[in-house]
Structure formats: structure tokens, C-alpha cells
Fold each of these.
Amino acid sequence: DQQVKQNSPSLSVQEGRISILNCDYTNSMFDYFLWYKKYPAEGPTFLISISSIKDKNEDGRFTVFLNKSAKHLSLHIVPSQPGDSAVYFCAPKKPGTYKYIFGTGTRLKVLA
Amino acid sequence: DTGVSQDPRHKITKRGQNVTFRCDPISEHNRLYWYRQTLGQGPEFLTYFQNEAQLEKSRLLSDRFSAERPKGSFSTLEIQRTEQGDSAMYLCASSVEQGAGTDTQYFGPGTRLTVL
């Protein structure tokens, strides 16, 4: 049951350029979406969220875009920095539950 | 308070043994989650507590798994009769509600379980 897919297992970007990480989902009932990043040997760290009533949320270098009709979510990081190198997970939630469903993650490598 | 802590960080056990993990959430957080993560996958939801009440449990959680949060503070996750397939990273997260049923989860560093 792959309700959340991150089809790019890895991505390499030059420092200073834009990183775009994508997430596709199948359940139109998801109403809240989070992005986490994870460094090795650490737990995931919250990055940014978006509610289904919005189509964009911005926080500093990070912007999340939501296209409900396409059931597609993307995270833009600009400019990318070497410290952004990590695994990124999207995690949507269904209303009426407490269950977040994580994607398989995308490993971002920002090259100096 | 520096965040969510988990103990132990690593556990190696033999198949058939019981193991127990502990999670100490951020002190003012009333919500607590357990997840399991295997190699190449994202964290997989196991169970959720609001204060001491276990409100949601994954159907993937077999009856060998049990979790408690007796006083609404720390939580324990016990796995009985461990199997090699239980080898994974077990993550705990805590949060407070932010409104409209949403929250931001803060994760601990995880307990890595290896079943031989």
C-alpha cells in the first residue's frame, strides 16, 4: 500500500542552485503535509508544513508547493547549501487520524 | 530539556528474547508516537498516545508488540519473542496539538534493534 511516493531516491545539486524534491500521493483525503529531513544517526527533524487549504508555504530558503488536483507536493530549497545534504521525507496525514504516512525519502547531496 | 530521548540507542538480542525500549518526550508534550524504520524506507507508524491513552494502533503491529505510557510522560515499547524481521530502528516522537488536529512531531534519535 504505497500511498506516498518519492520517486527520486537521490538528487545531487550544486551549492547555490535550487533543489526540488517531489512527493506524490494517492489519497485525496490527506489534509496536512509535513516535510522532514534526516541526518545519519539522528531522528527526523521537522522542516516545513502545509495545510490542504493552501497551495504554498514559505519559510526562509524552504518553500513547499501543494497541487491537490495532481496529488503532488514539492519542496524547493534555494539557495542550496552543503548542510542541506540529508534524506528528505514527505509525510501527509488523514483527517480524523493521528497517523502520518511517510514516503520512502529522497537523499539530497549538495555539492560544494 | 533538550528534546526527545530514547534508551537504549542500540540493542542486540537473540531471536526469541523480549526487549523493552524507553522514550522520554519533551516535557510539555502530551502526544507521543512510536514508529519503526527499516533500511531504505520512511518511518512507519506503530502507535499513538494522547496523555496516557493509546488512541491509535497500526494493524501492522502484531500482538507481540505492546506500548504503554502509564503516567502520560515516558513511554515504553516492548517486543516479545523477537524475530529477525523485527530488526529496525524504532523511533519515538512527541508533540502538542497546534489546532485543527495538526501537530509538529519532534523525533528522538531512535533505538536500533538487531535480532540475531
Amino acid sequence: QKEVEQDPGPLSVPEGAIVSLNCTYSNSAFQYFMWYRQYSRKGPELLMYTYSSGNKEDGRFTAQVDKSSKYISLFIRDSQPSDSATYLCAMTLSGSARQLTFGSGTQLTVLP
Amino acid sequence: EAGVAQSPRYKIIEKRQSVAFWCNPISGHATLYWYQQILGQGPKLLIQFQNNGVVDDSQLPKDRFSAERLKGVDSTLKIQPAKLEDSAVYLCASSLATSGSGNEQFFGPGTRLTVL
């Protein structure tokens, strides 16, 4: 079993739709949770960063962490064609060596 | 602020040949990471440097992979000899620190390696 599981998709939605992306994980020691966006032939870029359980909102993006269920989500409201990319969840343990453990990524296409 | 620079962007080699990748992190970033991203998978950490010292190389296949970060700035990753399964994108990332608020990792565009 992988430490982090993520539905690979692909996911295709019409412009303006609400998108829900999810990851589950097995290691209860993970404390920091991130979502990265990766455009084709580019490196990942950090979208959202949350510590422990709870919600965090940034514009059209909302990240949720439920540590009791070992489940994290990213919601995208009013999705745009420019949101078309691969979304990677990542998480780390607390401590000084912040090795990221990534999910396999979900490929999202927002159709105009 | 200039981002993480990597070169070359693309490389095609035959199996058993050697190859080297170069990374220049964001100025002032003490921590540097090399990741391997196989098609359809998330990045996997190969090695992490703090300045010019190795913090974690537990997932680096040391029989064929080597990396160095002389002077604590630029870094090179080498594969010798390459195998077919080494075909992947090699990503370099850097962060200001390994703990606290400066932990965010900034990624370069990657080097896409194809081994024939």
C-alpha cells in the first residue's frame, strides 16, 4: 500500500464547475499538508499549505484536512481553463527534515 | 526573484551511457533537493542537501547515482551507467530552510531524460 493515494483521473469538467480533488494517506504522523499544481513540462508549484486538521481558503481554492480520517481535499470554485493541470497532494512529518511524500497526481481539464 | 534553474531541459541517451544534470537554486536557499518523477507518478525524493552536506540520501540508488553540492550552491546529479528505468523527469527544488516558515520548496522546470 502506498503511503499516499490519489485518484489519477483524468478529470474533465466544464468551465465554472466546482472541482473536488482528494488524497488519502496511511501515516498518521504526517503533520503538514500541501497541494501543488503542475502544468505540462513544468515543475510543481505550491498552491496551498496547511498544518494539521482544518480548512484554509485562498481565493477560489479551499484546502481541507481531516486527520482523523487521514483524508485531505482541494476544492476549486468557478474553475477556469487555466486551472487545467495535474494536481499533486504532498505531506511531510513534523521535524527539521521536511521530506515531501507526494501522491501520484490528478490530471484536471477544464473545458471552455 | 529568479527561480530554480536546471539544465539541460531534455536529454536522450542509450542505456549504459552516463549523464549529468545541473541545478542552480534560488539565491540564499540553504536546502536543495533532487527528485525523480516517473511518468504518471508523483516526484520521489532522491537526495536532500543542507548547504553542502547530505541530509537524506536513503532513496538514492548509490550503485549508479551520485550527487554533489560543492560550495553549498550549485548541484549536479549523475547517473552512470543509465538503465531504461531511469527514464523520468529529474526535478531540482530549493528551500530557504528545512523547518519553520521557510520550508516551502520551489521547483525548477526539470530535466526530461529518455534512456533508449
